[in-house]
Design goal:
Elements: H1 12-26, E1 31-36, H2 49-56, E2 65-67, E3 70-74, E4 80-84, E5 89-94, E6 104-110, E7 116-121, E8 127-131, H3 155-164, H4 169-173, H5 184-194, H6 207-230, H7 235-239, E9 268-272, E10 275-279
Antiparallel strand pairs: 1-6, 2-3, 3-4, 4-8, 5-7, 6-7, 9-10
The protein binds a DNA duplex (16 and 16 nucleotides) through loops.
Amino acid sequence: MPAAGRPAVPELPEVETVRQGLAQWVIGRRIAEVRVLHPRAVRRHSAGAANFADVLVGTTVRDVRRRGKYLWLPLDSGDAVIGHLGMSGQLLLQPAAAPDETHLRVRFRFADDGPELRFVDQRTFGGLSVSAEGAELPAEIAHIARDPLDPEFSDATFVAALRRRRTEIKRALLDQTLLSGVGNIYADEALWRARLHGARPADGLTGPAALRLLGHVRDVLGEAIKEGGTSFDALYVNVNGESGYFDRALNVYGRVDQPCRRCGAPIRRETFMNRSSFSCPRCQPRPRGPASARG
DNA sequence: CCTCATTCCTGCGGGC
DNA sequence: TGCCCGCAGGAATGAG
């Protein structure tokens, strides 16, 4: 279960589930009207909210793609809509008659009788923008690495890059330029499986240890996507982010003071990078000595 | 280039 | 009862 019953933060598995749902419902549809209800939702679109709407009206959605936690929708105009859900974003398909959500930020109406697309985001960490000539891979997200489930992801390149990093392994796992799709929750879960404390120096990992860690990251992401796919028929389930944000089978995240499922030791919570990290004090001992002693 | 702290935002819950 | 504060956290940004 998500920690303390809070809504789940979308990580790669959730974004992939949204991508699949969107693909079913928006490909081939022509955009007839775009309303930006909160300018912050399109703050990354430097030409402004009015331009955002103008360049989209009349275009037809050709595809729905994903890189890490970013989505983009190539259009027949050659542009693409880029989206990130941030902490609390949802992309919903709703009948036009459905009442506006409290945190509705952008509405797309189509030139047909089908449901409208709504971007809803309470905390507005997420957002939408339009990329010119961005059908293949928009320049705005070209710095995002492939995720470990991408067929073109290179294990050897990742392992080499990870072991060159002069930082802690959890920080490296969260770096979307090294590999994408891992957030705080799945980083903790993968580290627990690998029996590694997140504060271990990345350049202290052996090649095989780094490869094992990558394998656990891949397993965690893959299992979550598979689980999301099980409740995946209905429009609402996928795209509405209600049931679509499947319960995660979490071993450490949010489980402070509860027994480790491997050894029974109470899970600890530590503050790291201004956020919480959860780990098992017995399975994942802290590295000895200060990081500054490395060298 | 590399690393890392800061910043954005809102709702919730605990403490007093 | 109500106010205040901490917390949740992805990723752009700029400092060093």
